[in-house]
Structures are given as C-alpha cells and as structure tokens.
Amino acid sequence: MTTEHSQQPASAAEALDRLGRLSLRKLSMESLLQTVADLAKSVMPGEPETSVSLLVKESPSTVVHTGQLAIDLDESQYEHGYGPCLHAARTGELTEIPDTRADPRWVDYMRQASERGNLSSLSVPLVIDADEQVTGALNIYARRPFAFDDDSRSAATRFAPYAAVATGNLYAYESARRMADNLQRALESRAVIDQAKGILMERHRLTADQAFQILVRTSMNANRKVRDVAEDFVLTGELPRR
User: Fold this and answer.
1) pLDDT band at residue 30, thresholds of 50, 70 and 90?
2) Cβ(2)–Cβ(66) under 8 Å?
3) What pTM was computed for the model?
4) What is the rounded CA–CA span in Å between residue 128 and residue 134?
5) CA 173 to CA 111: how far, in whole Å?
6) With contact defined as beta carbons under 8 Å apart, do 34 and 19 qualify?
7) Which residue in 77, 187, 85 sits closest to 135, CA to CA?
8) What are the C-alpha distances in Å from 162 to residues 39, 119, 144?
C-alpha cells in the first residue's frame, strides 16, 4: 500500500524537510499519512515496513501501512489485545523491541513477529484527542535486530507529529460525517496550521519542519491541541507560554 516517490530522500532530515513543505490544505489526510509512512520506511534502518495505528476508546485499527508485514503485525496485536503498538498508544511511551527473539514481553506476539521476519521494532505514540480517548502509534517494524540507535529514535519521534496531526484531522473528518457541525472545524484546522508555519518560517528564517516542530513542542508544553496553538498564534502573533 505504498505510494511512489520520484526520488527517495537521502536522510531523515531531508524526509522531514519534505514533509514540512507539504501543504495540509492541498493534501487529503489519507495521502499525508501514507506519505509519512512511506518516507519513514525509506529512511529508517533495518529494511522496515511501517504503519499508523489508531486507537479509539480501546478499538484499534490500522489507518495506513507500507506492506503486508506491517499490517500482519498490527492485526496480530489487535487479536491478542497487547503488543508494542497498543502499549505505545495506551501509555504514551516510546516502545522499542530490540530483538523479538529474546524480549520477554508479550511472548505470543514476539514469537509470531520473529517468525514473520520482524526482529526489532519501534512504536512512537501519537497524542490525538485526549478528550475523546483517541490515541495512536507510528510503528516501524525492522527486519534486523537492534536496528535503532539514538539518531533513528530521534528521527522517528519527529515523524510522529505529522502522523498525529493527519490522523487527528482524519478522525475529526470521519466524525464529522456523523456530526456535521464539526466538518468546517476539521477543514479549517489544516489551513491555520499551514498559516502559522508560514509566519514562523518568515519571522525566524526556519525550515518548514522546524516551524512545525515548534508548534508541536508548544502544544505539548501548553497541553493544548496543535490547531488551537496555531490559531492563537495567527491571531495574536505570540506563542502561548506554559
């Protein structure tokens, strides 16, 4: 379920810069999510497959994936009711499995993962909407053990906010099909995040990714949604303080 790119990025920094330059207004959320998954796959170590899991009030689903290995491992965890992607989504903790053949957690799942060729994995939590108990995880399933180092962990955590924003908007849009009053809000949030990024880029001479990461860090520090932080910034010209 991958999309083709004419030229693969040479590094995580290049991939993140490419993501930062994408316009949320011009892309569907499904397309943005698939792009996040594809770019993460192309620059993360261990010949991985990737996926984005969504957990809505303990009901899990896979929104996008890059290959059969990723969807198989996601669904194995859903069947068991446990595993790294569910743990990351439920706890908000970065969840790494260095070697599925030796890790003592989730024994049944580990056996299936190693049998299918997944020897290490990294699941990065996505905070989407705490009020509605909506969380998720960006999952990277590597084909070699001990695939991840500090640099790749850091890169993975920087991919995650793009997935979180896109998944949150996708969830809001799907909810809007049942509650029409939310539809305009879901669409407007994409535009205001792009606008805030543009202001930060021009004011501080930042890259698109750097501007987006500032919005993400501010939202985390203020315990507010990215779209709300962006909206206030566009209106006031100031980022909220903690």
Assistant:
1) confident
2) yes
3) 0.73
4) 6
5) 37
6) no
7) 85
8) 11, 26, 26
